[in-house]
Amino acid sequence: MGARLRWIGVLVGLVAIAAAQPAVGQVSGGQRAQATLIPKKMVGSWSRFVSVSAFQHFGVTDPAPGVWVLQIKRTGLIDIFKPKIPTTGTPTLEGTIRITGTRAVLKVGCSTGNRYGWKVSSTGKLLTFTYSSDANCKQRAAVISGYWKKRS
Q1: Mean of the pLDDT values across residues 95-119?
Q2: Other CB atoms closer than 10 Å to residue 5's CB: what's the count?
Q3: CA Rg value for the chain
Q4: Distance in angstroms (rounded) separating the CA atoms of residues 143 and 149
Q5: CA nearest 65: which of 52, 47, 80, 46?
Q6: Torsion sign (Cα): 85, 87, 91, 97
Q7: Distance (Å, rounded) from C-alpha 104 to C-alpha 141?
Q8: DSSP state of 41
Q9: In angstroms, rounded to a whole number, what is the distance separating the alpha carbons of residues 127 and 102?
Q10: Which of 46, 74, 42 is nearest to 148 (CA)?
C-alpha cells in the first residue's frame, strides 16, 4: 500500500509540473517579445542628410554634416554611421532603441535620458523622429531629429 501511494504522489507531481511548464514559458516568452521587438515597419537601414544648420540648431559646436546612416534591427539594436563611413565596417555608434507606442528612447552616444516621437509613412519609405526631450545630448538630437529615407 505504501509503495502504491508513493507512486501516485510521483505521478501527481509530474502532472503538476507538466501542466505548469507551458504556462510559464508562454508568459515569459510573450513578455520578452513585447519588451524587445521593434515594429517591422521601422526595421531596416535608413539615411538622412544632416546639415550644419541642424547641428547649430541644437548648439553643437563640432558638426559632422553629411549623410548619416541608421540601421535598426528587429531586436532593438541600432548602429549609426557617420558620413563617409562604409556601412559594411564598424559603426560609429552602437546602441539600442526602445519603442512604446509612438515614443522612442535611444541608448546610443550619451547615457542621458531622451524621448522622441516616431512615425513611418504610409509608403514605408520615410521614418520621422520628432524631438521631445534630449537636452543633455545635443549631437544625438541633431542627428536623430528629422526625416530618414529607407535604404533597405
Answers
A1: 94
A2: 9
A3: 23
A4: 13
A5: 52
A6: positive
A7: 13
A8: G
A9: 12
A10: 46
Single-letter code of the amino acid located at 75: T
**Which cell is 27 given?**
508568459
Tell me which residue of 126, 127, 131, 124 sits closest to 145, measured CA to CA. Answer: 131
What cell was used for 25? Answer: 514559458
User: Could you identify the residue written with the cell 532603441?
Assistant: 97
146 grid coordinates: 528629422
pLDDT category, 25, cuts 50, 70, 90? Answer: very low
Entry pTM: 0.75
Look at the chain and count its residues: 152
Quick check: helix, strand or coil at residue 120? strand
What residue type is assigned to position 84 of the chain? K
Banded model confidence at residue 4, pLDDT cuts 50, 70, 90: low
